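Hi all, posting the design record for the shared folder.

TITLE: backbone redesign
STEP: 1 of 1
STRUCTURE INPUT:
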């Protein structure tokens, strides 16, 4: 039974690996340091929203055996609306992931630097971070092998390592269980917490995971009889991923210092309180979070580009490889030279802010098309949950645009 269950662990952990990146780790750290356990409920809400939307994406991928971007291109018949949507998707996912890839790699680098220091290489007046290059090489080798099974096994292993690292760190801080339960169940809005709440949800419910999941399930499963495996895989992986984020919040709550701005600071801050073990476990978790996102972001961008532009999504396709290589190369260059493409990141934030509610709405619309999904289209309960989540992601979108443009809506 266990062997059969392990055999059917699939894209779910890859989706969890994608959303537990350095951004999520940093946001969870700030939430814990600033507000203790008070915002744990926001992660619970994020988990529910992610499970609902990712289940829809997985069901769509298995039944149609197509990626989400490919389905969107086929289902939207009005030419102008179709190409506006395609351009928005390409801007948010492909350009966005190129901008964020440096952050993913830098997150993994922070974890290594916490343990090993900063081994920079001086070359022609430039200071190159060798850990960035190392992570880039690891990601390149894994992706260039072109085997879904190998990528899946490596990422599942890294997710397990990451989960254990953050869980052990949280246990080492000896948290109050009753306070954790209260924080997870009772919604609170402490002063100046709204953007952090939205950030926690926004780094968990991410649009590119919907595209990634729909594409990956068809690599793993080919029959509608596999839907039960996909549903269980999605639920377990996303819940465990959410628990990892909650463990980071719990760990960060142990330090009442405003000087903590990322997980590397948190690792160093935990050391004098709970010993070097806490520092090392947290650093290992941060490294795993960074490298998993550094692998999944280029992969998602390649799947999106292939679906939108109509070329093969085979892992060994030259065009498919060209996309992820481009994303990965930019990430390595920007990370190793410590370049922050601020304007590109702002553009990506705007595109993602607009894309999230648009894709959630389109996904719900497609999931109600019996011509596409037959008897596997959404039922009433799934639609109710879907529309509630759509309301949440519209709020996220407004908040993201508000943050970028300083509109002072909130």
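Okay, here is what came back for every position:
SEQUENCE:
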């Amino acid at each position: 039974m266990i062997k059969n269950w392990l055999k059917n662990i699939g894209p779910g952990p890859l989706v969890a690996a994608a959303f537990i990146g350095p951004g999520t780790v940093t946001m969870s750290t700030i939430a814990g340091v600033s507000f203790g356990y008070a915002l744990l409920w926001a992660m619970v809400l994020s988990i529910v929203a992610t499970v609902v939307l990712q289940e829809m994406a997985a069901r769509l991928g298995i039944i149609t055996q197509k990626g989400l971007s490919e389905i969107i291109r086929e289902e939207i018949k009005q030419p102008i609306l179709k190409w506006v949507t395609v351009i928005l998707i390409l801007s948010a996912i492909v350009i966005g992931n190129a901008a964020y890839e440096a952050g993913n790699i830098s997150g993994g680098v922070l974890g290594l630097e916490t343990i090993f220091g900063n081994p920079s290489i001086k070359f022609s007046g430039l200071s190159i971070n060798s850990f960035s290059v190392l992570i880039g090489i690891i990601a390149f080798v894994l992706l260039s092998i072109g085997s879904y099974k190998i990528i899946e096994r490596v990422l599942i292993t890294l997710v397990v390592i990451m989960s254990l690292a953050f869980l052990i760190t949280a246990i080492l801080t000896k948290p109050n269980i009753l306070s954790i339960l209260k924080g997870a169940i009772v919604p609170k809005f402490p002063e100046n917490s709204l953007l952090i709440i939205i950030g926690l949800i926004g780094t968990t419910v991410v649009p590119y995971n919907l595209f990634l999941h729909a594409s990956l399930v068809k690599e793993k499963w080919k029959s509608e009889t596999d839907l039960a495996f996909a549903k269980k895989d999605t639920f377990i992986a996303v819940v465990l991923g959410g628990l990892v984020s909650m463990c980071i919040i719990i760990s960060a709550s142990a330090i009442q210092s405003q000087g903590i701005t990322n997980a590397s600071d948190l690792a160093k801050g935990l050391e004098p309180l709970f010993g070097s073990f806490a520092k090392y476990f947290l650093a290992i978790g941060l490294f795993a979070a960074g490298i998993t996102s550094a692998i999944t972001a280029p992969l998602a961008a390649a799947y999106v580009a292939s679906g939108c532009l109509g070329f093969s999504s085979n892992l060994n396709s030259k065009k498919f490889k060209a996309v992820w290589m481009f994303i990965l190369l930019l990430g390595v260059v920007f990370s190793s030279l410590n370049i922050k493409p601020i304007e590109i990141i702002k553009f990506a934030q705007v595109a993602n802010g607009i894309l999230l509610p648009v894709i959630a709405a389109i996904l719900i619309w497609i999931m109600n098309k019996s011509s596409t999904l037959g008897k596997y289209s959404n039922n009433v309960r799934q639609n109710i949950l879907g529309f509630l989540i759509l309301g949440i992601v519209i709020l996220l979108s407004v908040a993201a645009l508000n943050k970028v443009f300083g509109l002072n809506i909130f």
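COMMENT: The chain is about 80% helix and 0% strand.
Let me know if anyone wants the other runs.
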